[in-house]
Structure to design on (582 residues):
């Protein structure tokens, strides 16, 4: 086992980012909307808690992409085909997570190939990296031919997929189909690294939203009439007003828009009107903390 | 403020459970499949981490209901209408969570009413409980007429909904439409209590699945050929074989079926074949612990 740990780490070049190269959405177009397809029986039967979709939601928000929908479906070909086709039709950026391992329940690559009427084909560069990676693992080196075939299923991609290597130290690439749909593994740490690595390859929007959170201990019904008026008033400016009660701990009001100065200005008004205070924007999942 | 804490707690009777009463799915029918519709911009923009769907997934599994799909959508009437209609058509038990508060972005009751072509109507019993509840809260008692209207939106339900009071100390009921679709609040603690309270009102399946988890430190590709054979062999017995890798920490194999003795028997074989050990079935989200 010792040789594997003593050898220098394997690295492979990333796929070059086209400087002004082809945009998969078409010249000048940017990603506006997104959807996530989480594939896995283990999420639906409660064995595993999905964390990838929340990570993706934050990722989209920070980049100015509007995440419109998250769906969790079973390891089922018909379900994957239907959802993949519909999402690619409706949104600019679609990701799938899960179902790309070597076992019988890993059917994502094959199902996506079917969804877009493509045969499956081994990707030579992925095979090369996979094999180099395996050469460092004694527990993989002596596999039987059947085990090798199972392993190489992880390099069997839809024929027309773009194969994008986004990390020098990760042999798994991101496959992109139709310029939109990107296939990711389900393992959270790997998902997160690959998603972060994919960013330079995406035609991102030019602007990013700013979020302002105000907490009040008033009951939600007491601030509702003001918020309704505010919501109507801010519609023309495309500022979104949200209201999120915490059980017996008051309400967090959220303002989201692109013009930070304007959001801060409205924020001051909201603080006065709801007798609230500005709270931490990075810890918005639980009880709010003052900034 | 002191009178509110000194008064005895308010309680109201639960809706009686019909002993052999009408089954909303029809005589003798049981719930087999389920779907969850999570409604809320705050999930999609990453502000809030949805925990309700995982709670629901575990709930379904424990009761022998197959959860087929989870969807997270925006506070958007068209999206709610489309998803609610489709889910009611496709599954036996559908829940929604979120969007039932007093503010402008709480549109679930109205959207569901629209989905099933019903007007909205104030529910008298809910109004009574809501008002009694409010009488204990000095911060609500002196509300303006506009604030009262906002509050009473929480009792404005689709006209043909069954209004089921599932907890003596919670004024919020569960509204059920089409015998299938149950509307829940998004606040996790409230969601969990109401879901638990709803159980006696559901036509539950007669059998529950048994899950057995085996952990191995072998690479997933090494056990793949055996698992594929096992999966094919167990298909006629309706035993499902799953395989879930943990990054650099081996693989958890899952066996799910109704016959516990048979699952344990197969489990012993799997332990031998994958050089594994049985792991804790209640802590299946992270690194497995031996039983």
């Amino acid at each position: 086992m010792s040789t594997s740990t003593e050898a220098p780490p394997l690295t492979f070049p990333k796929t070059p980012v086209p400087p002004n190269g082809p945009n998969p959405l078409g010249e000048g177009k940017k990603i506006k909307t997104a959807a996530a397809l989480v594939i896995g029986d283990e999420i639906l039967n409660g064995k595993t808690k999905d964390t990838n979709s929340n990570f993706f939601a934050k990722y989209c928000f920070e980049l100015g992409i509007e995440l419109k929908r998250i769906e969790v479906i079973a390891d089922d070909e018909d379900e994957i085909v239907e959802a993949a086709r519909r999402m690619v039709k409706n949104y600019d950026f679609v990701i799938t997570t899960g179902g790309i391992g070597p076992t019988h329940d890993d059917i994502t690559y094959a199902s996506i190939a079917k969804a877009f009427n493509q045969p499956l084909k081994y990707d030579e560069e992925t095979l090369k990296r996979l094999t180099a990676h395996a050469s460092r693992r004694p527990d993989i080196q002596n596999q039987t031919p059947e085990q090798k075939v199972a392993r190489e299923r992880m390099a069997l991609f839809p024929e027309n997929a773009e194969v994008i290597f986004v990390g020098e130290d990760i042999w798994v690439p991101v496959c992109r189909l139709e310029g939109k749909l990107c296939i990711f593994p389900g393992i959270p740490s790997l998902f997160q690294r690959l998603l972060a690595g994919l960013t330079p390859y995406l035609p991102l929007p030019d602007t990013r939203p700013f979020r302002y959170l105000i907490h009040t201990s008033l009951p939600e019904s007491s601030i509702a009439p003001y918020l309704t008026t505010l919501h109507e008033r801010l519609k023309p400016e495309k500022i979104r007003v949200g209201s999120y009660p915490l059980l017996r701990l008051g309400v967090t009001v959220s303002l989201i828009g692109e013009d930070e100065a304007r959001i801060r200005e409205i924020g001051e008004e909201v603080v006065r009107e709801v007798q609230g205070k500005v709270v931490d924007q990075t810890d918005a999942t639980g009880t709010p903390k003052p900034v």
